[in-house]
Amino acid sequence: MSNTYKSAGVDKEEGYKTVDKIKKAVGETHNSNVLNHLGSFGAFYEIGGYKNPVLVSGTDGVGTKLKVALDSKRYDSIGVDCFAMCANDILCHGAKPLFFLDYLACGKLDSEIAAEIVLGMVKACKDNNCALIGGETAEMPGMYQPGDYDVAGFCVGIVEKDQIIDGSKIKTGDKIIALPSSGFHSNGFSLVRKIFPNFEEEFEGKPLYETLLVPTRLYFKDIHSVIEEVEVSGIAHITGGGLYENIPRIIGDGLCASIDASKIQIPSVMLELEKRGNIAREEMFGTFNMGVGMIVVVDPEHAEKVLHLLDDAYEIGEITEGAEKIDLKF
């Protein structure tokens, strides 16, 4: 019997099935700027309507949150997470997402699972006026075990050069406004899984995995509703490393983000994790978003308007002078 690619563990037919299951839905994310379709070696996207456009790109993955999804056999939210982690990053500079590409790797491809993951990306892209214009599915037996998947994405957005938000306008007295997260988002799951090994256990009346798999919140519509009305000095996406690592990324030398942690609305599942794992509060804030998915820094005169535009946002601090770029007061 002669050897074939399938005998080595790679089933091309399953890949074709995946494409068939997602092709129509992916096409629905395309607009007139997309000049070709799935199947080409590269994707074409035409830019128009900008005077001095700057492309802003971001790439990220879902991390070990995938283990929760795979073990619970719930795949629909993971694609949303992948898109959100990328799109929220470029949003920090005021960029609007133009197009998105994905990379899906596995040990043995199951077209049903792969399609469900990609269709989550499709939903997120459609909700954010972004085109899913390409991707790659890699079946790699030996590198991954059967049942294992890894997901990563790449997002390109656009912003006028004179409208780039980079934190350079942040000054003393500016207010720091928090936008709530939808949960853990896609960070810290190696620790989450260590403390919560049983995803089927009941938490607040439902299986724990339902709480853990709530997809990463997308902030595009909220942030742009603010940008269109007021000048924003800085935006930070609170991902791995929590407030401690992400807020200093936009704070200039000699300035400090002075934050009152008692004002932060910490989700109950994070408080349970902290208690059950005997984790120090500082460690929690240095690992998880602790209920703050994104922060916006604005001039004091704009703070009330921002809070009016964002129904669930609230003030957590202000910019002061200081050698340290963040001072989190517990």
Automatic annotation (TrEMBL):
Its main location: cytoplasm. SUPFAM superfamilies: PurM C-terminal domain-like, PurM N-terminal domain-like. It holds the Pfam family AIRS_C. Keywords: ATP-binding, Cytoplasm, Ligase, Nucleotide-binding, Purine biosynthesis. The keyword Nucleotide-binding applies. Residues 171-323 form the PurM-like C-terminal domain. GO terms for molecular function: phosphoribosylformylglycinamidine cyclo-ligase activity. Its EC number is 6.3.3.1. It is found in: Cytoplasm. Belongs to the AIR synthase family. This is Phosphoribosylformylglycinamidine cyclo-ligase. It comes from Chryseobacterium formosus. The gene is purM.
